């Protein structure tokens, strides 16, 4: 799934699908270092954060922001809040 399809999933409130792809995008080939139970837990946490962030940023509609712009902001802030960019540091070999 590409960045655009993740944004579309957020825009149409498909948080689980977006979270799943964000998780796999962050880990890449290191996905096998997570157990299925741990991976499911992380994906669920990401989906919750996406939903929460999306609800918080709905006020941007009042300022003429498009749903796509809002979804992009949700994506960026969720990646930062969950720490997806730091997964390489978290995984110990």
What keywords describe this structure?
93 residues; mainly alpha; 5 helices
Description:
- The protein has helices at residues 3-11, 15-27, 36-56, 67-82, 87-90.
- It is mostly helical and 93 residues long.
- It is built from five helices and no strands.
- The chain starts with a helix and ends with a helix.
- It has one domain (3-90).
- Helices cover 68% and strands 0% of the residues.
- The longest helix is centred in the middle third of the chain and has 21 residues, at 36-56.
- Helix 1 runs antiparallel to helix 2.
Please describe the topology of this protein.
Blueprint: H1 3-11, H2 15-27, H3 36-56, H4 67-82, H5 87-90
Helix pairs in contact: 1-2, 1-4, 2-3, 3-4
Shape: elongated
Largest pleated sheet: none
Strand content: under 5%
The helix content, as a percent range, equals: 55-70%
Round the Cα radius of gyration to an integer and report it. 14 Å
Structural class: mainly alpha
| SS summary, helix count | 5
Distance between the termini: 27 Å
Counted up, domains total 1
User: pLDDT average, as an integer?
Assistant: 85
Number of strands: 0
List the secondary-structure elements in sequence, H or E: HHHHH
Low-pLDDT windows of residues: none
Entry summary:
With 93 residues, this protein is an all-alpha fold. The chain contains 5 helices and no strands. The model has no long low-confidence stretch (mean pLDDT 85).
